[in-house]
Amino acid sequence: MTCLYIAVKINEPFEMDATLMSRLSRGLHSAEEITSLEYDIMIALQWKVNGPTPFQFVNYILELLPESAKSVAPTLYEHSHFQTELAIGDYAFVPHLRESTIAVASILNSLGVVEQDTFPFNECIQFVRSISNTFDLDIDSPMVNAVRERLLESFAKSSGYELSQGFVIIPKQVVPLNDKINAFEESPACVSKEMAISLEEYM
Predict the structure, then answer these.
(1) Residue 137 burial (CB < 10 Å; 0-12/13-18/19+)?
(2) Could you count the other beta carbons within 10 Å of the beta carbon of residue 114?
(3) What is the pTM of this model?
(4) Is there a smaller number of Cβ atoms within 10 Å at the N or the C end of the chain?
(5) Range with the lowest mean pLDDT among 117-131, 165-179, 183-197?
(6) 99 touches 52 (CB < 8 A)
(7) How far apart are CA 94 and CA 88, in angstroms?
(8) In angstroms, rounded to a whole number, what is the distance separating the alpha carbons of residues 128 and 134?
């Protein structure tokens, strides 16, 4: 109940007070208990509860689209949002991967289905460069390309069709992450290692 209380405060346009949450619990938890536990949770999380998600980053980035691309914006939003939702359920994306990287990779994949007559090539390149500069991200890096390919595969499995990549092409040669894998511990429960192994096969 307290986590729901915190989530509503962060993500919803209105606030539910602790008294209302207490009533929703049918008296099992008092307002004082909820606010007390809220403080304990916030301290444990070091107040790090409002980081942008890949979904939100997609919204922020696509606001930078030029006017010439407004006709394809709905398609970009739809495909990019779907990929970020798929990433949430993929354990490989959990550790050591910036949320913005997932968002950028999903947008680059979505740009692949856009026809040049609906989004001029030069303006598309300028848009991609603005993303790279804004996030200080090498969009041609091995990690970005690995994330892109994994998202493309997840998209194909979930939707039943593939996102064509005719506009923004993934380079054929990518440097493997063997050095990163060797740095991880050998425990099979190591999420970092699972991510590197999972992504390596697509690089």
Answers:
(1) middle
(2) 21
(3) 0.65
(4) N
(5) 183-197
(6) yes
(7) 8
(8) 10
